[in-house]
Amino acid sequence: MKDGEVIIVDEHTGRTMQGVRWSDGLHQAVEAKEGVEIQNENQTLASIHLPELLPSV
Question: Which of 13, 21, 35, 50 is most buried, judged by most C-beta within 10 A?
Answer without folding.
Answer: 21
